[in-house]
Task: inverse folding
């Protein structure tokens, strides 16, 4: 024991976190939890914990170590903080379960300490047993922030105990709970937990995961909960009255592949009038559009202070009318962030709602949208004056921004954009067209353009000028809607012949006056803050392998001094790097080329 404690003291004095954690495993296997805690507390408090300066989390976590009595708690908490970074040198022969699992054999006695924040995550989705978590929470009545990820509830008694301990945390401000999907439908867990929260709660996230589905039968849980409430003192009833959570500002209800009963969701939303942020998953099936609009109107009326909407259904069913109904009822120009997944804009309903909040929207994220109308894109680009982040990610081959009618017509109002991520079509493929990019490289030089070709190239130039005025841009990703990396890597010759006209960004090069080739790289020279350039552009594709030269590398290095990541190397990893990529590396050794 003296040798081990001396070794621990050395590691603490040298601030060697990796070795300290490895040693702590051996120590915890030898000593009882109480002796281990006392020994670590005695030595760690002799040193300035601020020296352990990694994202400010080490000093906080060491404070946790000093107060916890179960060695497994220390190991798990410490491992969770540094997973994937400073723990890379841990012995491979040591079982990970020793560090990331609470086991039923460990029975920490109730204790009282001064923890205010408790995060119980897991590595690789492993499930955590409930009992040690419950013991830690129960012993720390001053907790203000609790994050429980992948905690398995085995019995109804476990669940009731969790509700009781949450009710007793009078200072609780933030609660994140992830549990089995079956609890969402069968026992109304979300509603029960919501009304068990103390009035001090400001953030609540309830997420249900498939891998946490419990084996117990919870079908009669609500009756069990009712019986419990009827047979205990009124003071200890879990939620005898449904008082408003007036301080609640953020509520997320994420149900995975199943659907939340709408009556339980609405009963919660009736009691949080000060809500600022709302995240919803799918609600019940077979609801008409009228019903969904009414639900949206109800939510907008009950939660008039909403500023952030997040809708992430697991299915492709169009639940969009709920969000549209909320946006319609909320006060005009009040919504700040809009995050939608799998949205179907087939009937062009989103554009007027965007216009209704165009002076307040700062972030728009349409992730895996099924369809998006041209009017919607134009309402965003030409109407949202304070927009800072725009991300459009299509679900399938649905068109994105058409250069002809969306990108070049009308002046963009979103001049404060820092993040722009959207699919781009050079032409409207529903009509007869001549491609605007790539094809001209095989024509005789000097290039002679027809009138319609000149018109097309003029619009492409205007599109780049629009982007060039976004002087605050830090992240730019433009991708052809026909771009498919799997097709390209699996059959490169086919992709080269069939898709050679669909690359974007097009003409991201300097003009060649001798050949009359257009080039619009200089239009982006004002993006001095640009850090990432991504998309379907590649230094080895049909177009850019012949247009990106040393001059382009020099201009990019000078105009984009902060560039850290560039997607200039599309194709198979074993292909030889192009001369252009080598030139870019020479000018910026820290540049990451992907």
Result:
């Amino acid at each position: 024991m003296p040798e081990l404690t001396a070794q621990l003291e050395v590691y603490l004095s040298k601030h060697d976190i990796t070795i300290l954690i490895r040693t702590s495993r051996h120590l915890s296997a030898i000593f009882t939890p109480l002796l281990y805690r006392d020994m670590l507390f005695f030595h760690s408090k002799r040193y300035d914990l601020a020296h352990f300066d990694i994202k400010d989390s080490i000093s906080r976590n060491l404070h946790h170590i000093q107060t916890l009595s179960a060695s497994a708690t220390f190991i798990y908490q410490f491992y969770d903080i540094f997973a994937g970074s400073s723990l890379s040198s841990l012995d491979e022969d040591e079982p990970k379960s020793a560090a990331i699992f609470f086991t039923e054999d460990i029975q920490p006695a109730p204790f009282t300490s001064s923890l205010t924040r408790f995060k119980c995550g897991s590595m690789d989705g492993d499930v955590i047993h409930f009992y040690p978590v419950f013991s830690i929470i129960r012993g720390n009545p001053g907790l203000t922030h609790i994050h429980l990820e992948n905690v398995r509830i085995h019995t109804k008694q476990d669940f009731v105990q969790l509700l009781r301990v949450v009710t007793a945390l009078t200072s609780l401000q933030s609660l994140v709970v992830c549990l089995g999907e079956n609890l969402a439908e069968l026992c109304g867990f979300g509603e029960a937990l919501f009304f068990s929260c103390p009035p001090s709660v400001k953030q609540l996230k309830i997420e249900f995961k498939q891998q946490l589905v419990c084996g117990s039968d919870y079908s009669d849980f609500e009756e069990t909960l009712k019986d419990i409430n009827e047979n205990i003192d009124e003071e200890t009833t879990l939620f005898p009255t449904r008082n408003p959570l007036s301080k609640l500002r953020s509520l997320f209800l994420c149900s995975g592949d199943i659907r939340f009963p709408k009556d339980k969701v609405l009963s919660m939303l009736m009691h949080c009038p000060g809500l600022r942020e709302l995240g919803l998953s799918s609600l019940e099936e077979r609801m008409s559009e009228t019903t969904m609009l009414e639900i949206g109107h109800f939510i907008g009326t009950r939660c008039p202070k909403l500023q952030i909407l997040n809708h992430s259904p697991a299915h492709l069913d169009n639940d969009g009318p709920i969000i549209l109904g909320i946006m319609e009822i909320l006060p005009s120009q009040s919504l700040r962030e809009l995050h939608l997944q799998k949205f179907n804009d087939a009937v062009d309903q989103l554009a007027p709602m965007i216009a209704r909040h165009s002076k307040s929207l700062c972030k728009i994220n349409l992730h895996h949208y099924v369809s998006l109308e041209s009017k919607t894109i134009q309402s965003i680009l030409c109407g949202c004056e304070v927009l800072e982040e725009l991300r459009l990610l299509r679900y399938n081959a649905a068109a994105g921004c058409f250069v002809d009618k969306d990108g070049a017509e009308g002046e963009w109002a979103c001049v404060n954009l820092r993040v722009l991520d959207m699919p781009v079509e050079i032409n409207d493929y529903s009509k007869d067209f001549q491609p605007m990019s790539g094809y001209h490289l095989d024509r005789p030089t000097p290039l002679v353009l027809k009138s319609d070709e000149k018109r097309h190239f003029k619009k492409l130039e205007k599109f780049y000028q629009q982007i060039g005025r976004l002087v605050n841009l830090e992240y730019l990703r433009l991708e052809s809607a026909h771009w498919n990396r799997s097709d390209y890597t699996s059959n490169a010759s086919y992709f080269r012949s069939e898709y050679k006209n669909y690359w974007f960004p097009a003409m991201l090069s300097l003009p060649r006056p001798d050949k009359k080739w257009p080039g619009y790289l200089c239009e982006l020279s004002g993006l001095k803050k640009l850090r990432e350039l991504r998309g379907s552009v590649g230094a080895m594709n049909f177009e850019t392998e012949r247009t990106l030269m040393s001059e382009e590398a020099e201009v990019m290095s000078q105009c984009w001094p902060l560039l850290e990541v560039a997607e200039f190397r599309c194709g198979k990893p074993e292909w030889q790097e192009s001369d252009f990529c080598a030139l870019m590396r020479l000018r910026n050794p820290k540049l990451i080329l992907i």
